[in-house]
C-alpha cells in the first residue's frame, strides 16, 4: 500500500462537502491505492453537524479511509495536510455587494493561509472553492510565506466541465470526445469559456458547432450563467457538480492530465497571455508528476483578447480591494 495522504477539507458540514468527502474517501481523488486521512474543519456552530458527517463516513467502512479528525481551529485542522480543499466561506446574502463579500471572507482566508503556512506538510497543494474563489486563494497565498505561491489554486474546473457539457449537447458528441476547452479569468460571470482551440472527436470545434453566432449568443452566456440557472432550478447552489469538479482538479493535478488534452485551473499568473504576474486567474494547463504548466503559445484572437481582458480587469479590481483592506 502507498503512503497515506492527509486531506483537509474546510466547510465540512456544508453541501459541497457532503458530495466531496465520500468521493475522496472512496479513492476517486487520489486513486484506488492511496489511503486517505481526512481532517475536517468547520466553524464552532457547525461542529455538531460535522460530527454527523464523520459518523456517516465511518459507516461507509471505506477501505482507504484511515482516519477522520474534526476541528474548529485552522491551526489544528491543517496540521500535516498534503492536500487542502478550502470550501468553507462566508456566503453572499441578500443586498451584499461584491466588496462586502471580499471584506467578509478576508479574515477567513488570511487565517487559513497563515495556518497552512505554519502547519501543513511541505508538499501541501491548496484548492480554493469558496467564493470569491480566485481572490480568496490570492489572500491565502499572500499570507503563507512558507508555501511556494504556485501551490495555491482556485476552482474553475466546474466552469470547464460545464463548457464541455454544452459543447457535447450542441454537437451530439460524447463528453469524452471533447478536448482542449479553456476557461480564462475569474470564477464569476465575467469568466471566458473559450472554444477557439477545442476539438470534437479530434476535429476543430468550430466546424462541429455550425452557426458561429451560437458560441457568442448561446454557449458563452449559458456557461457563465449556469450557476444561477442551477440555483433557480434546484433552490440551492451547485453542490455535487462542484464536488465532482474539485475531485477532477486535485486528481489531475496530482496524477496528471490526459495526453493531448488540457484542463482549466485558476493559478498564479507567470505573466502568460498578458495576465499580470501573481494574479490567480484561470488558464489552460497540463499536469504531470504533481506539477501544472500553463499551456504556452496559444493564438488569442481579438474576440478572445477582449473577453480575457475584461475578466482579468475584474480580478485586478478585487486584488486592489483586498490589498486596500489589508488582507494581502
Ligand atoms: P454551504 O453553506 O452549504 O457550506 C459552507 C460551509 O462552510 C458551512 O457549513 C459553513 O459553516 C462552513 N464555513 C464557513 N466559514 C468557515 C470557516 N471559516 N472555516 C471552516 N468552515 C467554514 O455552502 P456550499 O454550497 O458547500 O458552498 C461552499 C462555497 O463554494 C461557497 O462559497 C460557494 O459560493 C462556493 N462555490 C464555488 C464554486 C466554484 O466553482 N468555485 C461552485 C459552487 C459553489 O457556488
From TrEMBL:
The lineage of its organism: Bacteria, Bacillati, Actinomycetota, Actinomycetes, Mycobacteriales. Belongs to the LDH/MDH superfamily. MDH type 2 family. CDD domains: MDH_chloroplast-like (cd01338). Its EC number is 1.1.1.37. Residues 156-321 form the Lactate/malate dehydrogenase C-terminal domain. It is an enzyme of class 1 (oxidoreductase). GO terms for biological process: malate metabolic process; tricarboxylic acid cycle. This is Malate dehydrogenase. Pfam families: Ldh_1_C, Ldh_1_N. It catalyses: (S)-malate + NAD(+) = oxaloacetate + NADH + H(+). It comes from the Bacteria. Keywords: NAD, Oxidoreductase, Tricarboxylic acid cycle. NAD(+) binds at residues 11-17, 105, 112, 129-131. Substrate binds at residues 92, 98, 131, 162. It comes from Nocardia aurantia. Catalyzes the reversible oxidation of malate to oxaloacetate. Residues 6-146 form the Lactate/malate dehydrogenase N-terminal domain. The active site is at residue 187. One of its GO terms (molecular function) is L-malate dehydrogenase (NAD+) activity. InterPro entries: L-lactate/malate_DH, Lactate/malate_DH_C, Lactate/malate_DH_N, Lactate_DH/Glyco_Ohase_4_C, Malate_DH_AS, Malate_DH_type2, NAD(P)-bd_dom_sf. HAMAP family: Malate_dehydrog_2 (MF_01517).
Amino acid at each position: 500500500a502507498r503512503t497515506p495522504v492527509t486531506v483537509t477539507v474546510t466547510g465540512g458540514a456544508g453541501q459541497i462537502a457532503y458530495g466531496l468527502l465520500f468521493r475522496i474517501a472512496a479513492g476517486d481523488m487520489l486513486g484506488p491505492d492511496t489511503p486517505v486521512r481526512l481532517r475536517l474543519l468547520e466553524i464552532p456552530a457547525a461542529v455538531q453537524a460535522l460530527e454527523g458527517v464523520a459518523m456517516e463516513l465511518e459507516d461507509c467502512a471505506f477501505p482507504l479511509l484511515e482516519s477522520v479528525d474534526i476541528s474548529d481551529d485552522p491551526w489544528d485542522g491543517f496540521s500535516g495536510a498534503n492536500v487542502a480543499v478550502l470550501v468553507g466561506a462566508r456566503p453572499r446574502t441578500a443586498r451584499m455587494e461584491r466588496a462586502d463579500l471580499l471584506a467578509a471572507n478576508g479574515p477567513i482566508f488570511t487565517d487559513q493561509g497563515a495556518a497552512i503556512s505554519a502547519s501543513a506538510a511541505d508538499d501541501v497543494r491548496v484548492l480554493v472553492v469558496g467564493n470569491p474563489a480566485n481572490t480568496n486563494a490570492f489572500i491565502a497565498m499572500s499570507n503563507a510565506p512558507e508555501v511556494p505561491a504556485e501551490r495555491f489554486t482556485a476552482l474553475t474546473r466546474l466552469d470547464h466541465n460545464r463548457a464541455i457539457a454544452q459543447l457535447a449537447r450542441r454537437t451530439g458528441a460524447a463528453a469524452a470526445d471533447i478536448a482542449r476547452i479553456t476557461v480564462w479569468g475569474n470564477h464569476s460571470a465575467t469568466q471566458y469559456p473559450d472554444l477557439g482551440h477545442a476539438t470534437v472527436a479530434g476535429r476543430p470545434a468550430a466546424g462541429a458547432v455550425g452557426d458561429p453566432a451560437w458560441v457568442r449568443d448561446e454557449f458563452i452566456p449559458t456557461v457563465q450563467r449556469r450557476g444561477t440557472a442551477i440555483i433557480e432550478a434546484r433552490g440551492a447552489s451547485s453542490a455535487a457538480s462542484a464536488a465532482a469538479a474539485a475531485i477532477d482538479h486535485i486528481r489531475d493535478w496530482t496524477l496528471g492530465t490526459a495526453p493531448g488534452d488540457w484542463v482549466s485551473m485558476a493559478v498564479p499568473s507567470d505573466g502568460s497571455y498578458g495576465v499580470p504576474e501573481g494574479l490567480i486567474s484561470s488558464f489552460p494547463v497540463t499536469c504531470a508528476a504533481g506539477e501544472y504548466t500553463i499551456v504556452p503559445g496559444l493564438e488569442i484572437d481579438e474576440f478572445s483578447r477582449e473577453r480575457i481582458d475584461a475578466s482579468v480587469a475584474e480580478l485586478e479590481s478585487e486584488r486592489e480591494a483586498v490589498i486596500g483592506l489589508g488582507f494581502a
